[in-house]
Structures are given as C-alpha cells and as structure tokens.
From TrEMBL:
This is Uncharacterized protein.
Amino acid sequence: ELEHGADDTDAKDVTLEVAVDDPVLGWVAVEPVALESSGVPILGHADGSKPLYAFNPSVDVSIEQSNYVASAPNTITIDLTSNMALEPGSKVTLTGFTGTATEDTDELEIMTSNGAFLP
C-alpha cells in the first residue's frame, strides 16, 4: 500500500512495467501500462481521480456582524469556505458562540447563503 506525503501533490504520470521470469516460458515482458484517470472529479477537485493527486482538506472561516449599536438587533454572518465539496449528509457544527445577550436556545434561525432556513 502506498501512502501520500503530508503536502498537496499534483497528478503524476504513472506507468507500470511488468516482467516475469518463468521456469518454462523463460523471460516474459509485458508492455508498459499507464495508470489512467477516470476523469471524474473527486470532492470537487477536477484532478481528484488522476494518479497520485492529493490535497489537504481545509476550511477557512470568517465572521462579521451587521450592527455595532448597543441593544440593537444584530445579524452574525459566518462564512465557511472549503477547498473541497462536502458530500450530501455532511454536517457542520458551530460551538462556543458565547458572549451575546441572547438567551440560550436551540431555536435561533440559521439561514444558508441561498436563503433557505435550516431546522
């Protein structure tokens, strides 16, 4: 089993050559075979299926507020940008959001960038 290194790597041309030393047939060489790509993107990376392509998954986070006036309503915007496509069923959990005057509740409205409310 091969293992990727710790860094991102571009796809490589991988060719395998095979030779067999058989006691009856003698030396049998097989034409080189290239490891091909399916061409299907993996996790949103166009080169994801190419031989030896690897990337380090990451998520960048920024947070902003809509209002700086005391006691006024304030919309907090959290922007998550990932370098990979999240698969259906993936969950994003935000924790540790403290310091507001809002009562603790599971009922805060959360809206996605396309305007859909999440339960």
